[in-house]
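# nightly structure sweep
# worker-07 picked up a monomer target from the shared queue
# config: single-sequence mode, recycle default, output format = structure tokens
# input follows
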Amino acid sequence: VAYYVDMISARIAQEKMLRFSEIFPREAGQGTMIGTFLALLELIRLREIRVEQEKDFGEIMIFAGGEANHG
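# output follows
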């Protein structure tokens, strides 16, 4: 999971915002999908990223920083 934490952290530091769907490589196997998802949860727990979803079933956006924008 540490590998995926580092990968996501580097991407979010560079791009500042990512779509949830962009995090997972197209050819990702089950292990990669699980590792990436667990890394996302860990980064949220550590407040290094925040996630927002505008509407039900809408795209989930990932941002640098841990405080959600409630406004």
